[in-house]
Amino acid sequence: MKPFEYRSPADAAAAVRSVAGNPAAVFLGGGTNLVDHLKLGVAAPDLVVHVADLLPAGIEELDGGTLRIGAGVRNSDLAADRRVRERFPVLSQALLSGASGQLRNMATTGGNPLQRTRCVYFQDVTTPCNKRQPGSGCSAVGGWTRHHAVLGASEHCLAVHPSDMAVAMAALDARVRVLGPDGERTIPFTGLHRLPAGTPERDTVLEHGDLITAIDLPPLPLARRSAYRKVRDRASYAFALVSVAAAVEVRDGVITDARVAFGGVAHVPWRAHRAERVLRGAPATEETYRAAADAELADARPADGPDGGNAFKIPLLRRTLAATLRGLVREDAR
Amino acid sequence: MTFIDRPVAIGLDLPRRDGAAKVRGTAVYAYETPVENPAYAHPVQATVARGRVTALDTAAAEVLDGVLAVLTPATAERLASTEDRELAALQDDGVAFRGQVVALVVADSSETARHAAALVRVTYAQEPHDSELRADRDDLYAPERVNPDFPTDTVEGDVAAATAVAAVVVEQTYTTATYHNNPLEPHATTAHWEPADGRLTLWDSTQGVHPARTAVASVFGLDEAKVRVVCPYVGGGFGSKGTPHVNVVLAAMAARAVPGRPVRLALTRQQMFSLAGYRTPTVQRCLLAAERDGRLTALAVDVVEQTSRIKEFAEQTGVPARMMYAVANRRTTHRLAALDVPVPSWMRAPGECPGMFGPEVAMDELAERLGLDPVELRIRNEPVTDPQTGKPFSSRNLVGCLREGAARFGWSGRDPRPGVRRDGDWLVGTGVAASTYPVHRMSKSTAVIRREGDRYVAEIGAADLGTGTWTTLAQIAADALGVPVERVEVRIGDTDHPMATVAGGSSGMSTWGSAVVEAARAFRTRYGAEPPERAEASGSVPPADDRWAMHAFGAQFAEARVHLDTGEIRVPRLLGVFAVGRIVNPRTARSQLVGGMTMGLSMALHEHSVLDPRTGHVVNHDLADYHIAANADVAEVEAHWLDEHDPHVNAMGTKGIGEIGIVGTAAAVSNAVWHACGARVRDLPVTLDKVLPALEDPPGR
């Protein structure tokens, strides 16, 4: 790896100043993704600024019931938190379905949503990749696309966002607190990530030097009945082929409210607003679940490839959404 | 050869002698061998699949602090032999596959070497490459022989005529994927040239110190006496460390380029996907013709697979079908495509492992067509003598394995219909397949037995890949000498010991054990029961008894579950029963068989090296994307064996257990998946996208 300078500043503001002042600087959180990139040459920073230990590592309950999760909270601690498990089981389940115990002990709440795609072409510096090297081309187009997007992709990038936690956050109307060179601001979690369009090198709307300091979870009573269903190629320790984060409220056999997000199918954790609109006010039946999936997947576009492509993700996601909703409704009936 | 009739130490359930050192981390592996002031080497790899290097700009690498040397075809030493083109590192500017080594950086640290390697600028004259295996290629050719030395094609009787009049015919194409061995310990070497006398020492992770020495001595034009290879422990090889790959040559070249300094070279996981061998993908056209009662009348297996353009390796995929079942009309063929791809090589049970997928799924399909139980179908086709050679079997207990396995698994009363068993949200099914592996014994290996104090020492250049050799050879020596096993010390893994063959072909115990028994006999004959201190005798492998067809057999049973909604596949239960001769140590034996079956499960459900034909390289070249079964995928795996006495195979009565465990597993799993959900998956791996179309939508509940 390329030699780099390493700094461990005293506070978040100093860390932001360090990175903002150097275009070749990066933040280091838990290091579960960046360290790989340093070895592979995917990232070659001049300056690495360690922030995992100086960010808030606690979960506090604000007036009004919002849970404020410090960006330094490790994934395993967040998954185990009693309030999270009771109020937002979808989030706990999503976290526990990701990576391995060792990685979850390292990965942070702030770093997790900022991890980069695991697209094999992005991670291999010998193959063209618009995300890694803008304008070089997208090797996934016509390449191995089993793990690539069917929603919201562009001809410039077929990558998917790899995080499970982020899918749950997208469903839960979470908000992201960001410290930048010009101070603090808050953005909706669903506005954090962006579709690739013509600039896939930008994963998120954050500017260089912006640091996530916390993620807020506003109260969401229906999330007490929520679930994360991850479908993957082996029983554990694999990224999602598709995943569903869902919460539903059912009264007298009718879905009164719902939150749905998809993982493994887009450049962003995909909040399924169209599916939610179909679900709200509809009877809790197989037909409804499938109509919701169909509404969301109407614009889905599979990619082909030497391994048969990823067209299977569309029926798989449809079936997985139905199974997840069915399970929640069953749970609700108990 | 005299059979050991009354084993005492053989058969004991002894813990591994090296186990505690491995658990404590004190067992020293090749890369961590303590040496003075080591340097580190990192290869630069071609980014085109075919062509020529026209320019190598090493300036940026060479000025880097800590860089000691950059070897290129222009600066690297000339090797004495370039006959093996896989090992002819840096001898010319040709590129025969993507990932081939085009330069090598040597530096003070591994990080610096890696960074410098990234700074070497390579310019290519790229030529169109062809890396895609298809069965309909027009350039397929018949190799002269298939690995290691089998006829390429066999024909007996008239397959077409028998098929034309058969009651039932199954004819399908089955494919296995490309697989990479992926041992946990990467291919790693510490190399040191003695400045004074030009002796080369290699601490190398290898399945055979002597074969490695022979290959390296030949490449460098050295007298074998000037080369020492040391390898006490191996963190897995699975065939990929059976012959030296280019990394070993590079390590030695690098060490000679920085005189006086030992050099360490460990391949990265990604580099192992192009430089350390792999199993060819196979396309198997299988035909089975049978009478109504299930008796086979014709069998054909026509195999298409790949090799590299620079070195041929012809996997013997069609070979097991030649002797498996009694069938008068048989044809097996192998055709190869020579592609712009890395060099394929041995991977656990070459031939038998892929070659028992197609035919054993075809047997299941035949059973389905006949309405016959698949266990019974196999029993009905049991031959009296080896169909291929006509020789009697030294022992053949396939039927015993099938019956014992069926009883243990709870097979009887099985409803043959697919897709009718539910457990919650899961469809449940069971499947069976047969296993086989030949009994190999290498013709050469020598052991020495010596008395040292109150102990007997057995020395032989054998290898322990984690298989248990340190322990099991002591058990054999103890019985051959007639002493308690505690009084025997074994010394292996060093060319300073007598010559031993590779740990390959499941031949280790049968070969090295035979040499140890001969040495012990010679020792007792010469010195009797009271040998003097330092008394010593050697013995070598006796000639094999070629009157017999010698094979191990097994039966594997699998339970598969397919999720009604998602098609996710789980295998909660695998059960194998094997007839593998005498078991030297039930603990290490069970570990090998369970390990083989687990690897077979991994092959069935997960493993698949995805080659992108546009670039010619495997794109999922790390363990995040090349899936092997994780703990959660491996539930109950049981291995049992029959109490088999075969006095013909060798003095110990052992048949070799390193590879049979992976043979047939994938077929058993695929057959179980069919039984669970009705999807017949003929292309490995069996993944959810291949069963989804067979599942009801919405699932009936």
Topology readout:
The complex is a heterodimer of chains A (334) and B (701).
Chain A: E1 5-7, H1 12-20, E2 25-28, H2 34-40, E3 47-50, E4 59-61, E5 67-70, H3 75-80, H4 82-87, H5 89-96, H6 101-106, H7 165-171, E6 175-180, E7 183-188, E8 211-217, E9 226-231, E10 242-251, E11 254-263, E12 270-271, H8 273-279, H9 286-297, H10 313-333
Parallel strand pairs in A: 1-3, 2-3
Antiparallel strand pairs in A: 4-5, 5-8, 6-7, 6-8, 9-10, 10-11, 11-12
Chain B: H1 19-24, E1 39-45, E2 51-57, H2 59-62, E3 67-71, E4 94-95, E5 101-107, H3 110-119, E6 121-126, E7 145-146, E8 150-151, E9 154-156, H4 159-164, E10 168-176, E11 188-193, E12 200-204, H5 209-220, E13 227-230, H6 246-257, E14 263-266, H7 269-275, E15 282-290, E16 296-308, E17 329-339, H8 352-355, H9 358-370, H10 374-380, H11 398-409, E18 422-423, E19 426-438, E20 446-452, E21 455-459, H12 469-481, E22 488-491, H13 508-527, E23 536-540, E24 551-563, E25 569-579, H14 586-605, E26 611-612, E27 617-618, E28 636-641, H15 665-677, H16 688-691
